[in-house]
Amino acid sequence: MSVRVRKLPTVTVAALHSTDADGFLADAQQYRRELLAHCYRMTGSLHDAEDLVQETFLRAWKSYAKFEGKSSVRTWLYRIATNTCLTALEGRQRRPLPSGLGQPASDPSGEIWDGREITWLEPLPDSPREDPSDPSVIAESRESVRLAFIAALQHLSPRQRAVLVLREVLQWKAAEVGDAIGTSTAAVNSLLQRARAHLDEVQPSPDSPALTPESPEVADLLARYTSAFEDYDIDRLVELFTADAVWEMPPFDGWYQGPADIVTLSKTHCPAEKAGDMRFLLTTANGQPTAAMYMLNPQTGRHEAFQLHVIDARAGGIAHVVAFKEDGFFTKFGLPEVLPAD
Over 80: is that where the pLDDT of 207 sits? Predict the structure, then answer.
C-alpha cells in the first residue's frame, strides 16, 4: 500500500523570522486542513483531530522562538502534530467500525444494540474543492482518508500508524521519521515493515477501484439509492448492492452482509413508514460519495438530521455503506439540522 501526496510549497525561514509568533500562526493557518487530515488519520476521530490541531498550533506558538529553521515550517508543524497525537493516544483504545470488532455478520431481523460505550470511528468532511491551488486540497489524497484505510490504520499501534502515515502518505524519508518521533532509522524501518504486514491482513485488496464522487456511475447509483428510500421502495435496494456488500451503522454494534440482509434490516428497523418520510442531501466524506438522511419527525412535521451514509461505490455497485447516526456531524459538514418544508 502506498498513497502519495505531492510536495507543497513551504514557508521560508527568512519569512518566518520576519514576523512575530502571532504573525507566524496566521501564516501557518494555510496548513490547518492538511494537519486536520493528518490528526484524523492518526486518531480516526474528527472531534479529536480538531482539538489536536488546536493543540499543535498552541505548542508551535509557545516554542516558536526555539525554531531554528533546520526544516520547513510545514515539516516542523507535522512533527509537532504527530507527537501531539502520539501523546493523546497513550492508553486509548482504537476506534473501530462494527465490522472491525471481530464478530460475525448479524441477523438483520434480530435486535440491534446501541454500543455507545465504544469510541467509534468518525467520518471526515471533505475540504472545499473550488480552488485547486489550495495546498490542503493537494495534500488531501482521497485514498489516504477513505474509511477503509482509516479503519485499517486503527489496527496498528500508534507508533506504527505514525510511521506508516509519515512514510507512505507524506513520503518522508526514514531518517526524517526517526528524527520526528525520536527513534532510529532501523527502528522506523522495522515499524514500517510490521505495519505493512498487519495492514495487508486487515485490508484485503478490493476487486475493483473505488469510483469517484464525480463519476456518472456514482451519480446514477446515488439517484437510485436515495429515491428507493424516499419512495419507501426498499426492495429496489437489492439491485444496487454488490453480492458481498456490507452495511453498518455505528453506534449500533452489528454489521450486515449481502443485499437481501440489508433490505431486511431496513424494513425491520428503519423508523420510516411510508414514502416521503425520508429525504436526502448529497455531500462527500472521506473522499467518498455521501448521502445525508433526514427523517420525518411526526411530532414536528419536519425532516430532521438522522444519518450520514458514507458510500463505497465500485463498478459492480455499492460495496459498503457506513451509516453514521447524527452526533453533531451535520453541523461539521455544513449541513442543516432541519430541512425546510417542501
Answer: no
